Design the sequence.
């Protein structure tokens, strides 16, 4: 009663709170809306024409309050709307504002998760309260559903598996979001058949009615945004790829694709027949062709983990958390493959340069003076048995020497060989005194080419010192 009286007195004075003006004048439930919420646009809207049109529409509403008691507040809101249009129509300002907005949403999600989910019973009502609080805070729950569901499944692994296919409720809600988008944005078949298919999928995935209504309302409010989603454009060109995508996601999170009731409802939603569904189920084990390197590595890790689990069901099997840890970090496998390739290139370069020899060199013969080495070598070498008849014994040279060896031994009984030949004297061997610094010893004869040698004479005397 006191709050109501204070609000009336403020209204009488022309001083209304900002959240009251948002709610009463513009129909905004969030007390602190973003620029997108102020203009009535879905969060992260990227169409500049839609921003300008929404800005003109909101300004027309506020000009009705510009004359009268609330002139000051109306002018303030008009200035805020103009600033919002200016920021969202500038590419650089919009990028910076979106980054700031994402940081605020993460902080709000952490706070609301600790408030609603941390320590509480893991039930669908708890999740519904958490997501509703996020939506009231301005967080685009449905647009960020993949990010929310992956983080929520990892942090709150205790959510009970629900639905006929045994998929956890958050992942089921993510799949249901995509199918609601297809039902509302893909104009295939009559509207009644699409609504019936979406309701059947809701029952199969065990999505509560409150969560289904939350998702449907947000998709209908941002239908022009979801109509440009990847799953809608893919369904228009290749509907069978959508069936494969949803089936692989269900099987990835432990669901059963063998029954195929969810995929059958999706096939009816896409206007396909049973033959298309059977063909998609037959291609379920094929590798997707439009994946990046990280996604391909993650898929290979999941398949390897599945094979290991099939092989080792008993003792010694790989724990599930190891496969989950590897599958959640495909960049580690890519980095390991790159490092292995670089190492192989380095080793090949070193081998080609001759710095590293990966092969083993020939083992040298053991020394005769090393009995230990000779013994070890002899212990390792095993004699091979002879093959075939034994060959006749050949006498040695000592037993039957040849004729030339006997004659040589008779001529030189001491075992000495013939004397070395005397080198004949030639003019080129004659040394001249004083040529090229050669020195003649005292008393040695001086040899003159083509002439007799002179007898040795007395050695020359050194000159006496002067003075």
Sequence:
């Amino acid at each position: 009663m006191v709050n109501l009286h204070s609000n009336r007195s403020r209204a009488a004075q022309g001083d209304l709170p900002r959240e009251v003006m948002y709610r009463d004048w513009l129909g905004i439930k969030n007390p602190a809306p973003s620029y997108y919420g102020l203009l009535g646009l879905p969060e992260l809207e990227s169409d500049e024409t839609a921003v300008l049109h929404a800005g003109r529409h909101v300004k027309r509403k506020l000009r009705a309050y510009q004359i009268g008691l609330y002139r000051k507040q109306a002018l303030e809101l008009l200035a805020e709307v103009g600033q919002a249009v200016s920021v969202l129509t500038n590419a650089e300002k919009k990028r910076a504002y979106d980054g700031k907005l994402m940081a605020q949403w993460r902080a709000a999600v952490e706070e609301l998760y600790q408030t609603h989910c941390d320590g509480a019973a893991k039930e669908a009502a708890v999740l519904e309260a958490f997501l509703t609080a996020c939506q009231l805070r301005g967080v685009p729950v449905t647009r960020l559903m993949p990010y929310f569901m992956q983080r929520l499944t990892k942090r709150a692994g205790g959510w009970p598996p629900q639905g006929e296919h045994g998929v956890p409720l958050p992942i089921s809600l993510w799949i249901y979001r995509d199918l609601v988008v297809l039902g509302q944005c893909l104009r295939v078949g009559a509207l009644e058949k699409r609504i019936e298919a979406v309701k059947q999928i809701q029952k199969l995935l065990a999505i509560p009615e409150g969560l289904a209504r939350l998702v449907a309302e947000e998709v209908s409010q941002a239908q022009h945004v979801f109509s440009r989603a990847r799953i809608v454009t893919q369904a228009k060109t290749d509907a069978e790829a959508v069936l494969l995508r949803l089936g692989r996601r269900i099987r990835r999170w432990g669901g059963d694709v063998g029954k195929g009731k969810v995929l059958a409802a999706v096939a009816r939603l896409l206007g396909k027949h049973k033959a298309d569904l059977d063909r998609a189920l037959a291609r379920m084990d094929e590798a997707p062709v439009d994946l990046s390197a990280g996604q391909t590595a993650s898929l290979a890790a999941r398949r390897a983990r599945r094979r290991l689990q099939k092989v080792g069901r008993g003792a010694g099997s790989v724990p599930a958390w190891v496969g989950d840890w590897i599958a959640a970090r495909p960049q580690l496998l890519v980095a390991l493959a790159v490092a292995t390739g670089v190492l192989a290139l380095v080793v090949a370069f070193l081998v080609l340069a001759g710095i590293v020899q990966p092969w083993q060199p020939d083992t040298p013969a053991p020394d005769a003076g090393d009995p230990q080495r000779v013994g070890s070598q002899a212990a390792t070498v095993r004699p091979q048995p002879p093959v075939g008849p034994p060959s006749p014994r050949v006498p040695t040279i000592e037993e039957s020497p040849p004729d030339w060896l006997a004659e040589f031994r008779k001529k030189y009984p001491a075992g000495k060989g013939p004397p070395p030949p005397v080198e004949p004297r030639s003019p080129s061997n004659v040394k001249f005194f004083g040529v090229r610094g050669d020195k003649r010893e005292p008393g040695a004869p001086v040899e003159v080419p083509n002439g007799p040698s002179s007898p040795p004479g007395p050695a020359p005397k050194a000159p006496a010192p002067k003075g």
Remarks:
- Residues 4-13, 374-380, 428-440 have pLDDT under 50 and may be disordered.
- The radius of gyration is 49 Å.
